Amino acid sequence: MSAQILPSAFARPEYKPSTGFWPEMHAAVSLIAFGAFALACVAGVMYLVQERLLKKHHLNSVFHALPPIANLSVAVQRLMLAGVVLLAGGIGAGFFVDRSTMREPVAVILWAIGVWLLYGVVLVLRLTHRFSPRRIAWMAVAAFTIALITLTAMSYVHL
Amino acid sequence: MQLHCLGLSHKTAAVELREKFAVADTHLGEVAAQLASLPGIHEAVVVSTCNRVEYYVAAEENGLAAVQEFIQQRAQHALEPFFRLYGTESVRHLFRVVSGLDSMVLGETEILGQVKKAYLAAQSSSATSRNLNKLFQRAFNVAKEVRTKTNITRGPVSTGSAAVDLAEKIFGRLVDCKVMILGAGETAEMTARALQSRGAKAIFVSNRTFERASALANDLGGKAIHFDEWDREFTALDILIGSTGAPHAVVTRKKLQPLMHKRADRPLFCIDLAVPRDFEASVNDLEGVYLYDIDALQSIADQSIQVRRKELTVCETMIERHVGEFHEWFTTPRPVITPMQPQTEAAK
Fold first, then answer.
1. In this complex, do A70 and B172 lie within 8 Å of one another by their Cβ atoms?
2. Minimal CA–CA distance to B242: which of B202, B169, B192, B282?
3. Class of residue B223 by CB neighbours under 10 A (exposed 0-12, middle 13-18, buried 19+)
């Protein structure tokens, strides 16, 4: 599944990506979902930096360059929500792809579902106010880092 | 003909003197026109603000006495406090004034609007012509360049404006922000007004003397609340300003912590303007709470002033270049256009 998103990580000589409506939808929507998660991670870092500067009263040029902290909090939440919805669509589109042409390892499919579940749980905890804006910012950074590390690790294991 | 500037400012005269020479906004054009009609005076612009009264004239050498006489008669006061600047000195002075370099608060931008207003009043009264039109239009360009290419206007320079800037850095737009003032101190009122000017709408005032809270709430268009009940409105608040005269902290961490759980994770900006302080310092350690006391706000204002002072040399260099260019234009001989003569019969 996500081998189509990051083909270089799973590059094999005989690999040819599937074409057609569903494979392309699956790849495109999943790619946009991970783009949203990446942006949520960036917004999360910006939130944490801005929060620290505000707390410590260090109003330097970085502080002036960053957006208001309330806007950053909203951005993190919305980007994560967009990522979760899009990734659900991407995974869903993957089920319509012809199995005989699909060359993704099962582990990658499970990894994508795991990432979706991780973000989904974080988002539910946020929407039920069990996670504060600060914690959701940390989670946006942590979840994306975990997703990247596990994906890279899998490319070496060649499951 | 030469350019002249006669005037007084906060640097040369106290407010008691400045008010004697002040010209009302509605009379700026009329006074400029009266001046321009005096013998030896070609053009005039009168700038009058709370910090300065300045007369810019394009006049012959012998016309200056008439200007002085006019000002004296109008104010019924001797001209001792007036400074007199000639030629490039007056040009340099105007460029510094519009750029905010001569202002009480270095780099303030309000003066530009005031000078523009004065110039437009003079222009609409036909008191200006080629020289002062060129001078003032160049001055407005200089002010724009100084403001956009340097940091002379950067950062807040008072505790009130520092608080407002911080509020915008926390909440973005202040339109939906709800503000509460604890106590009815003058600084708190000024800060609340500054927040109102940026869009904050709902203002609550809570004071031990309810009548005083009501009076201030009426002034601000807000709502008065009994002091013992301020925490009932807390969940809806975004900005809490402390300015009571209480000898101990009114807002403690112990009191705030349970209230913060009811706020649906919205940040809270606490502005402590009271001495002794109204907020316990450990309140700042609570998640989502940003506490700034009077010293912290003053320190922000001081930093901005330092940044502005550092920019002075760059601004002066920029202005000097424009003064040189204007001087070159002013001293360049203008082409003489002679009226066309009717052709003679012989030439036909």
1. yes
2. B192
3. middle
Q: Which helix (H) or strand (E) holds A51?
A: helix A21-56
Task: Tell me the one-letter amino acid at A116.
Answer: W
pLDDT band at B282 (very low <50, low <70, confident <90, very high): very high
Predicted complex ipTM exceeds 0.85:
no
Burial class (CB in 10 A: 0-12, 13-18, 19+), A6: middle
DSSP for B291-308, written as a single string: EEEHHHHHHHHHHHHHHH
pLDDT, tens digit, for every residue of A35-82?
999 999 999 999 999 999 999 998 888 998 999 999 999 999 999 999
Q: Say whether residue B300 is in contact with chain A using an 8 A CB cutoff.
A: yes
Distance of alpha carbon B256 from alpha carbon B247, whole angstroms? 19
Chain B residues close to A68, C-beta within 8 Å: 168-172
Rg (CA), chain B: 27
Chain B, residues 262-281, CB within 8 A of chain A, namely 264-267
Q: What is the pLDDT of residues B136-156, one digit of tens each?
A: 999 999 999 999 999 998 888
Is B177 one of the catalytic residues?
no
A129 vs B264: CB contact, 8 Å cut-off?
Answer: yes
10 Å Cβ neighbour count for A93? 20
